[in-house]
Write a structure and sequence with these properties.
With 367 residues, this protein is of the alpha+beta class. Helices cover 17% and strands 43% of the residues. The chain has 6 helices and 25 strands. The strands form 3 sheets. Strands 14-11-12-13-25-24-23-18-21-20-19-22 form a 12-stranded antiparallel sheet. The chain has a 9-stranded antiparallel sheet with strand order 9-5-2-3-4-17-16-15-10. It has a 4-stranded antiparallel sheet with strand order 1-6-7-8. The longest helix is centred in the first third of the chain and has 12 residues, at 9-20. The relative contact order is 0.11.
Length: 367
């Protein structure tokens, strides 16, 4: 006996797209599929792999239908994104799902829902409610930096701290470290955890309500609103004490215009395939010189204006140009404050935007 419902095409497309983020990449695994559950007034899609689980719901007009089945969300999403009509008709018939939109129709095979592993619900304790967009931004800004294959597991995730009115995210690959901070409201607990890189990546790509609930279990973190729930495993271990390497106003610093510095480094880097540049800071002359040389004798030099400094100490320091370009391209602030000690110690770039403070550490190239 067939059962038919009408759904909003865009809503279903978004749910399927989100589901593809948390399915297993192993094609032979049942977790490369998603569990689709339909009752009289709601559609629910569950997808998960070994790290992340996603539960999504959407309300529908009450209809006389109940169905549980397993589908491949990649196939369904690729179909839905090509459909033009606002409403799509879905008919479920034994082990088939039929999709009709305007003059288009297709039939897809489904699997028995009993093949999908039972859920192990370990949501844990409600810690706080937080601004989801800020959490999403912190994860999105910090996920490019960890080495996902590092043998030290704690270096592969995103270290997240929530304390009173502050939320921070930090990540590192041993050569560079980023620390991002923002203000939050409605928090009354202190918590820190290292979220798996894949979990942070999924959260950075989805949309949720403005305010979400944060739950912490024994080894999971769950972000939840009224219609969605994302759960990620956590990494056991201790993140390095990054506070000891952050530089501050007690150190030497100069201030430069971000776009000018970024353009200068990009130009100079073109002739050096090893991505090695040298920064020479002369606060008295209000100049930062960027230089690159290669083994063929080619050399590029450019200058950037220093608009402000707190010292007269000159320095020459060699860096990987890619690391500097990545950060300077990521932030939007007008000015960059560059802190330094010596040519063999890490430097720190600081960017202050309206809602976020970025501290970015880079280790020098020492010959």
């Amino acid at each position: 006996m067939s059962k038919t419902i009408n759904i909003n095409t865009n809503e279903m497309k978004k749910m399927m797209q989100n589901a593809t983020l948390t399915t297993s990449k192993e094609k032979d695994s049942i977790l490369s599929n998603a569990l689709l559950e339909i009752n009289t007034s709601e559609i629910k899609i569950t997808s998960r792999n070994n790290i992340v689980k996603s539960i999504q719901k959407v309300e529908i007009e009450p209809q006389d239908i109940e169905a549980n089945l397993i589908i491949n969300p990649n196939i369904v999403f690729n179909i839905l994104k090509e459909l033009k009509e606002e409403t799509t008709e879905i008919t479920i018939e034994e082990n088939l799902i039929k999709i009709k939109n305007g003059k288009f129709k297709t039939t897809i095979k489904t699997l028995n829902n009993e093949l999908y592993p039972e859920e192990q619900n370990e949501k844990g304790e409600l810690i706080t409610t937080i601004d989801f967009n800020k959490l999403k931004h912190l994860f999105k800004s910090s996920i490019p930096y960890p080495d996902k294959n590092d043998v030290s597991r704690e270096y592969t995730g995103i270290f997240t701290e929530i304390e009173n009115d502050k939320m921070k995210a930090s990540s590192t690959d041993h050569f560079r470290l980023i620390n991002i901070e923002t203000d939050i409201d409605n928090n009354n607990k202190t918590i820190s955890f290292i979220i798996e890189h894949e979990g942070a990546s999924v959260i950075s790509k989805i949309d949720m309500e403005e305010t979400v609930e944060l739950y912490k279990g024994n080894n999971t973190i769950t972000i939840k609103d009224n219609l969605r729930e994302i759960q990620s495993k956590l990494i056991e271990g201790s993140f390095p004490n990054y506070q000891t390497i952050l530089l501050d106003e007690t150190n030497n610093y100069v201030i430069m215009e971000r776009n000018e510095l970024l353009s200068s480094i990009k130009r100079v880097s073109i002739t050096n395939q090893n991505n090695e540049i040298e920064l020479e800071i002369k606060p008295n002359e209000k100049i930062l010189t960027v230089t690159s040389k290669n083994q063929e004798g080619e050399e590029s030099i450019d200058e950037t204006s220093v608009t402000q400094s707190n010292n007269d100490n000159e320095i020459k320091i060699k860096l990987d140009s890619r690391f500097a370009i990545n950060f300077l391209s990521q932030v939007t602030t007008n000015d960059i404050k560059l802190f330094y000690r010596s040519n063999e110690e890490p430097i720190m770039m600081q960017a202050k935007e309206e809602e976020y403070i970025y501290n970015y550490i880079m280790t020098p190239i020492v010959e």
